[in-house]
Each structure stands twice: as C-alpha cells, then as structure tokens.
Amino acid sequence: MARNKFDIDEELDVKFDFKQVRRLLGYLKPYKGKVAFTVLLMIASSLLALLGPYLVKVAIDEKIPSGDTGGLVLLAAIFVVTLVFGTVCMKYRIRTMSQIGQSVIYSIREDIFTHIQRLPFAYYDSRPHGKILVRVVNYVNSLSDLLSNGIINLITDIFTLAAIICWLLILNVRLALVCFAGLPVLITITLLIKNAQRKAWQKVSRKLSNMNAYIHESICGIKVTQSFAREKENMDIFLGQNDEYRKAWIDAIKVQFLMWPMVDVISVASACAIFFAGTRWLGTAGITTGIIIAFTSYVWRFWEPISNLGNFYNSIINAVAYLERIFETIDEKPTVANLPGAVEMPQVKGAVEFKDVVFCYEKDEVVLDHVSFKVEPGETIALVGPTGAGKSTIVSLVSRFYDVQEGSVLIDGKDVRSVTLESLRKQMGVMLQDTFIFSGTVMDNIKYSRLDATDEEAIAAAKAVCAHDFIMTLPDGYKTEVNERGSRLSVGQRQLISFARALLADPRILILDEATSSIDTKTELALQAGLQRLLKGRTSFIIAHRLSTIKNADRIMYIDNGRIIEQGSHEELMERKGAYYKLYTAQYQLLEAV
Amino acid sequence: MREFKWVWGLMRKYRAIFFTALGLVFVVNLLNLINPIVQGKIVDEVIEGGMLEKLLPFVLLMIGNTVVRAALRYTYLYMFENVSQNVVYNARRDVFRKVQELDFDFFDRTRTGDIMARITGDLDAVRHFTAYVLYSIFMHTVTLILALTVMFIKSATFTLVLLAITPITGILAVRLSGTVRPAFSAIREQFARLNSVVQENISGNRVVKAFAQEEYEIYKFSRENSGFRDSNIRASRIWEKYLPVMDAMAGLLSVQIILVGGIMVINRNITLGDLVTFNSFLWALNNPMRMIGWLINDTQRFATSAEKVMMLLNREPRIKSREGAIVKKPEGRVEFRNVSFKYGKEPVLEDISFSANPGQTVAIVGPTGSGKSTLVSLISRFYDCTGGSVLVDGIDVRDYDVRTLRDNIAVAMQDVFLFSETIEGNIAYGAPDVSVEKVKWAAQLACAHDFIMEFPEGFDTIIGERGVGLSGGQKQRIALARAIVKEAPIVILDDTTSSVDIETEHQIQQNLRDYCKNRTTFIIAHRISSVKHADLILVLEGGRIVERGTHDELLAMKGRYYDIFVNQYGDFDKVVNE
Fold it and tell me: Which of B38, B72, B69 is nearest to B56 (CA)?
C-alpha cells in the first residue's frame, strides 16, 4: 500500500517554476487597483523623503551662514509637511497591505479547504492527517510576510532601481557600465546556489510536515501511549523529528544568508572599480572629479534595491517550497467526483442494485468479486460474514464513497455515478464503524446530519435510539460539551449519538455498519423494538456480529471473500443448513464449549 | 516578564554563543565606520589630491574590511539562528514532554488543534524573537549609545534639545506596547480555533462525507478563517495608529537640526561644523527611534505566544508519581476497596469492592455508560479515584511509580487507536524491543496473523491513522495483539472482540487460556460468550455492582445477568435441541 507515514518524506518532483508565483499573484488580482495606488504612494513618499536631506543641505549651506531665520522656519515647515505626508502614506500602506495580505491568505486557505472537502476517503486514508493539516494552516501562514510586505517592496524597489539606472546612465555612460558590471556576477552566483537553496527549503517544508504529523498522531493517540507507558520511546522519536527539522532549517539558512555578504562585497568592489576607472579616465569622456564623487555615493543607492530584491528572491524561494505543496493539494484530482452531466438525485424510493460489481482498494487486491444483488424499497438487509470479507465495502459503495472498477451500483435504477454526490448522500443515513464526535454540544452532534432540525426532532431521534436517558444524566443534558475524542462518553454512548444523528437525517436508505457493537444487550433490545418502526419504509443495510441484531432482517446475505455465499431470510437460511446455519448454531455450541 | 525569564532559561545553555554573536554585532558596527572614512580619504587624497599611488592600498583596505565584516555578519546571523533553533528545539521538546505527561482529564477537555497551535504557530514567534528581535534591539541600543556619546561630547545642550522629543516617542512606545498585546492574544486564540476546526474536519472526514455536510464544514471553517483574518487586521489597525507617528517623530529630528540647530548656530551657541557632525550622526539616532515601534510589536507578539506556551507548560498533571514511588514489578493482585469516582460532580462509580488474584479472570458487564471502562481505567491510574482505594499487590496504585504501574498493565481499549505505522510497529508499540517472532506469536494468539499475511506486504503493511483501511474486527485484533505482546501481569481487555465474529472470538478465547494462566485478566464485554468462563463476573449498573458471581451462580440468581442471557440466547434450548 502506498501509504505515507510520519517519518516518510513526501516527495514532490517539480522544477522550480515561476508559475507558482504567478498563480499566487493571481490572488492579488482583485486588489490590483489598491496595490497600484499603494505603490504610487510609496514611490511618492520615497521621492519626498529624498527631499529631506536636500532641505538640510540648503539650511546648512545657505540659510544658516546667512543668518536667515525666516528661511529656516520655511524649510522646517516644508520638512514637517513631507513628514506628515510620509506619515499618512505609511498609515495607508500598513492598512491596505495588511488588509490585502490577510485577504489573500484567507482566499488561499479557503480554496485549499474547500478543495479538500471534495477529496475522497482514499486521500485521507493514505497519509497522516497532520500532514494535511500543516498545509491548510501552517504553510498558508508562512506566505503572510511575502504578501503583506514583499510585493509592495518588490515593485517599489524595481521602480527605484530603474530610476537610479537611468540617472547613472545620464550622468556618465562609461562609469555607469562599470557600476553595473558587478550585477552579472551576482546573478550568476545567485543562479548557482539556487538549486541548493531550493532543495534546502523544500526539505524544511517536508520535515515540518513530518514533525507535524507525528505531533498530531501523538496527541490523538495519547491514551494508548500512556496506557502502554511508551512516553520515553515517543520522546526519542519526536526528538529525532525535531532535530531533523532543526538541521534542515539551519542548512537552509546557511545558503539563504549567503545573499547579503555577496551583495555587500560586490557592491564595495564596484565602488572601488569606479575609483580605479574614474581616476584612469579622468578628463576623458566627460568624467570630472565631481562626477566620480557623485558616482561613488550613488553606487550605494544602486545596490540597495538590489540587496532588497535579493532578499525578496530569498523569500520567494522559501515561499515556493510551501506554495507548491499548497497548489499540489488544490490540484489533487478528486477520484470520486461529480461527473459531467451529473443530475440531482430525485427523492429516493430505495431500490438498490449491484450489477456485477468488482472492486479493489489497491490494484490486484480484489475485495468484491463480481457481486450482484437487488434490494426492493423498504427491505432490511443484514450482511454477515467473517471480518474483512467485504461487508463494509459493499455498504460504502452504496453511498459512493468509492467508485467501482467494474459493473455498477444502481439506486432506483440510476447509476450512482450519474447523480451528484451531495444529492445522493443527503438521502442516506450512514452510521460508520468509527464514530466521530465533533467538539460542540451533544445537540450539535445529533443535528449534524440535518442542521435545520428542531431540538424536538433531535430529542425524538435520541429517544428512538434509546440515547435520551443517558444524555439526560450528563451534567448539562443535551447542552453538554463534548469533543473530538468524545470526552467522557463511552464508545457505546458515542454509538448511540451517532445513531441518533443518522436517524435524524430521515434517510430513505439507512446504513448501520456495526452501529451497535458496543451497546449492551438490554439497550439494544429496546432499540430494536423502536427500530422496527423506524425502519418501515426505509431500505436498510445492517452489518453486525451479534446475531440477535440481524435475525429480524428481511434478507440476510452471507459474505465471504468478496462474494455473496448465501442469501435469504433467517428461517430459509437455517433450513438450508449452510454457512449461516453454522454461524448461528456455532454461537450456542461455542457457549457450551467454553 | 515571566516570558523573558522562560526564554532566558532556554537560552542559558547557549549564552556563550549568544554573547559571542552579540560581540560580533558590536565589531561589525565598528567596522561599518571604516568604509565611509576610507572613501572620504580616497576622495580627498586621491581624486582631489591626485595621489594615485595611494588608491590601491585604500581600495584593498576597503575590500578587505568588507570581506571581513561580511564574513563576521554571516557568522553572527548564523550563530543567532543556531541559538534560536536550539531554543525552539528545546521548547518544543518541553511542550511535547508536557503533553505526554498530562492526564486524561486534560485531554478530555482540550481540543487537539489547540495543542497543535501551541507547538507550531506559537513557537514560531519564539524563534523569530530569539533569532532576530533580540539582536536587533541590542544593535540599535549600541548604535544609539555610541551616537549619543559622541553628540554629548560635541554639545550637551544641543543633544538635550534633540532629545526633547524622545519622551513623546517613549509614551507612544509604552502605549503601543500595552494596546497591541491583547490584539496579539486575540490572534493567537483565533489561530488555535482555526487550527482546531481544520483538524476536526480532517479527522472527521468520513462523517462529513457520509452526511454530505461539506457546505456546513466550509461555513464553520470560513467563520474561523475570516475571524483569523479580521483579528490580524484589527492588530494592524493598532500599529497603523502608532508606527507612522513614531516614524514621523524620528523625522522630526531633522527639523530640529534645521530650526533649533540653525538658530543656535546663528546665535553662536554651537559652530556650523558641530551642526554638520550632528547631522551626519543623525541616522544613528533616528534609525533606532524608527525601529522601536516594530521591535515592540515583535516583542509583544513573542510575549503573547510565550505566555500561551507557558500556560501549557505550567499545567501540572494531577496524576504523577509521588516521591519515592515504588518501582518494583507487581505480581498482579488487584483489589478495589470501597472505590468511588466522580467526574466533576457527576458520580460515576460508587462503593466498588472486589479482588482478583493472578490466574483469575474478572468480567464486567452492564449497560452502556454504567462505568465499566472507568472502573478498569482506575487500575492503570488514568484517573484517581475520589473515594476508597485501588490496590495492586496490596499497595495503593497512587504509591506506584506511574510508569512502573502502567508498564505492568496491558490494555486493549474499546476505542481502538492505531498509528499510521506498519502493522508490526503497531503491535510492538508497547514493547518496541520485542522480536519479530514475538510479534507474530502475539498476532497468532489474537487471530490476526492470517489476515495480516493476506496483505501483500504482510506485517510491513502501513496502516492509516486510526487504523483506516482495516475493518473494525481487524483493528480490534491488532489492538489485542498489541496488548498481548507486552506480557504484563495484568491484562485489561475492554470490549476487545465486539466487532469480531463469534467463531474467531471463540478461537481467541482458546488461545488466551494459556496466556492468562498467571495473569490477572479483566474483560469487559456485552456478549455472554465473552464472559462466561470468567472466575468472577461483576454486573454494573449506574456505577454500582448489582450482581456478582460466576456464570452459573448468576444464571441461578435469575437477575439482571440472567436477563442478558435470555436476550441473547432466548431460543437456546430450541436451537441446541434441534
């Protein structure tokens, strides 16, 4: 099985692609007006900021020597105006960029979350849940810096750079070219380390994912860990994960930090080159002492935006390591999805037919082997047979949790693949082997299947499945808070709540997959009495090991090795003295034997 | 303040590196002064003075200086990252250890996603603080002090005049610091909620799909997602109020240079040269003033996150080994003496007394929610009883070292949790050093061997989280094997075979007969077939033992046990006599 676990890296073999960045920029599209305006403001305010030193220069060179107090006041006033303008710009920038950045993060997260809702069981089954969680929450968060400041800085820096390049070229072409000479060197080195850098950050993201998976599972399985007193071993495993993440981070940072010294050395070197070239060419090609001095001070202004761009580039490389994972998830094709032309499932009557169904979870591992049967509306079908025979698989195909490899599953004569998933599943009440309780009140959990149900309806459902009495003994009755791990509810109680939940949906087809395995016999009997009434008019599939649960079914199917071995009513099957008879009598003989 | 103490505690071990790196920051700051001086000299002496022969040495000095400072800066950045990674590594270790120590009670009340948020998001703020914020504060402070010293020497009065506006910045800084903290706190809370809603959605994906409630899930998620966005925006609303003003305050220094400085020069209080020097040092003054707002922001962000992490770290598990706790391996005698247990105010168990010796099997039956699982969880001390005492080998379980106690109890819980691990890894979970043969032996006893071998990869098959991909009965049998392989003197099987078919269950019972010979075994079950052979059957109802005895005794009593029997085997005679 190609299942992933916490200590297996998820490989992703994609080349570095600016498409990822472009796709990210796509999220900014709705705000492009605002972004453009902010950039304009930033440019304006940085131009105004240039005015500051000039004002000081005028004061020192002219106004002070001449003792012009009035002039000083004027200059100070102008300066204050630029400050006020700068303050307003900055305020606007902080406000818009945080709004835009947060909104983009919101949208990306919304997209990835909405998408994973459409992914089938198989997706969730094949990897630790912590690895999905880390993508939706942490990876998306790591884009926040890039979005709130990076983009604006990028555009502003590019603009500044373009302006300074023009200015240098106007001043003197030759010296300008000398000044630019360092650039190709920088770009070459940057490209050379790009691969190492990218790999390093990808590793960081993978290790983070692994560690998260381990933490998540450790918390979910904490009761097992404590009951087996395995804390020490788990600590060691965790420290291993923790250490790998730390190492990956340090490795990535080692490459990342190369950028700054590189820019530093190259920029100083190019300033020196200007001194050399300037002194050599002095007097030719319009190079004067003043020009050289001007150039050496502009050199820094040229390299500053480049240094910023280098940092931006760093954060892009870093972000892409997360982005590609996010987009990988968003691009994951749901294998069970609405087909083109799928229609709404009309009100289900309840006829179910399996036509020569072949199904396997993994290739070559046949779970259902040419299964065919027909169920009339309102019939109660019980599935029995050894564990792993394929009973749960059969019922999960009715809700189209998986798609069959061969043959077809029909409801009211319609192939389940020809209708929309939502309209199909909304008409089914499924109670799975694994009960899952959401955090919230007991009432919330019962109403989960039909959100618009009234409290009375929910209570009626709880009464019908004999859950009402125990719920009333809880501290706050139906308003008692429970959580994912079910808090203090016993498995049997959780099953009863899930049962009520399934029933509240008022489904046409009811599927009970070992719905009552942990419920005591007495409650179960009471439940059955109520159930007879509830099942009326509904098609139902019941999987159970306790034979008292299934005896009353209209038809019992005995499943073994992915095939239906026998089917018929309890009496018919007892008469036949086949597999079911053996199973049924065995429970008595075995009781004797113990 | 406690937050800083905590982080310092973590940094202590790395203080040599940390302070060396701070030293390097200082050196680099000094080196930064060299290039402008050299450059000035080049302009003065080479370009204007025409001493071309001096160019090469000057240039070499500049480049040499740059290479050294770049190397040093790279080194200190690396050192800070190193310290910060180690700090976070250790913090994460502490949190994980704490999580493992905390008792069931905590987990019954805390959402997984909330705990996850602490370990991931909150620790990231700690990382940022130790890697970046701390040294930035240091760097700016050093720059500020150096600049102020030079300025004071030049002109104390003018320096004081310049500093006249700093109290305003100070007030703003204090205000920002106070108001931004709750905003960050709100972000962290909201982050935890977001994390929880996503986490539950993923873990509960089967139920979501079964009821086609994707839309509702998206609605729930969107609420938290937009809450997270809004809390972030709200925080930015606070700093947008302060930061631009603080920035302008820094700019105001230039205005003072022009106006106050200018007038002072005109009035001959200071020289023009002094003013020029002041002006050239101004960056060293206004840069830190500009940064102070941002650094306060980051510091508060750190402090809020650290507070949340510490809240988790400071939580004391109620269940822990007392001092001098017993570490001797028990033989397995279990006794309940008038045990009662309340969960909050809700009584769960009342006046439970019985005892069991090695070799004996105690079965517990009773309605759903009657306290069966709670009863056995008191043996492992997952909860402490609120009245009476639970004794193992005649010693109160509270006197045992918790690890020793649990090491000697093998539990198969009714709520089977398997890890996304290989089957072998899952079975060997409680005894990681056990041999493959032992694992296979346990699987055979649990009747799991055959179906495991049917998987293409056998025992190396990786199963999904929570055992996805296996049927209920298969999961239970792996959990049973996991308990068996531990070979503990006390064995607790909590509804372990409810999803296993009767024949297999019978087979398992046969297999375990030998295994349980010298162990004290507890079985919780609903099927009569599972409990019939027990030496003592306890019938629990409403947290009390209402009947006790062997199968035959209880049948003869014609009470509740008899009712269960009739419900399950009502047509017993008919079938057997056929």
Answer: B38
Question: Residue B356 maps to which CATH number?
Answer: 3.40.50.300
Q: Tell whether B297 and B394 lie within a shared domain.
A: no
The owner of tokens 């979910």 is A220
On whether both B152 and B261 belong to a single domain, the answer is yes
Contact A361 B469 (CB under 8 A): yes
Half-sphere exposure of residue B169: CA atoms within 13 angstroms, side-chain side: 26
pLDDT digits (tens, 9 = 90+) for A22-55: 888 899 899 989 888 988 888 888 778 778 778 8
Q: pLDDT tens digits, residue range B19-69? A: 999 999 999 988 988 888 888 888 788 877 778 888 889 989 999 999 999
* CATH number belonging to domain A18-331: 1.20.1560.10
Gap from B68 CA to chain A (nearest CA, Å):
10
**A70 lies within 8 A of chain B by CB:** no
Residue A126 forms contact with B (CB below 8 Å): yes
In order, the DSSP letters of B392-430 are: ETTEEGGGB-HHHHHHTEEEE-SS----SSBHHHHHGGG
Find out whether B12 and B4 touch, Cβ atoms under 8 Å: no
Torsion angles phi and psi, residue A321, rounded to 5: -60, -30
The domain tally of chain B equals 3
What is the second-level CATH architecture of the domain A349-427+507-594? 3-Layer(aba) Sandwich (3.40)
Token pair, residue A450, equals 């039909």
Residue of B nearest to A118 (CA): B214
**A18-331 against A435-506: fold identical:** no
Record: contact B471-A387, CB cut-off 8 A: yes
For residue A545, the distance in angstroms to the closest alpha carbon of chain B comes to 6
- Count of beta carbons in the 10 Å neighbourhood of residue A149: 17
How many Å is the maximal CA-CA distance in chain B? 126
Residue A465 CA: distances (Å) to CA of A403, A496, A507, A516: 32, 7, 15, 10
Which pair of tokens denotes residue A307?
């240094």
Q: Is A496 on the interface with B (CB under 8 A)?
A: yes
**Residues of B in Cβ contact (< 8 Å) with A448:** 207, 211, 213, 216
DSSP letters along B91-112, please? Answer: HHHHHHHHHHHS-HHHHHHS-H
Say if residues B304 and B185 touch (Cβ distance below 8 Å). yes
ipTM: 0.86
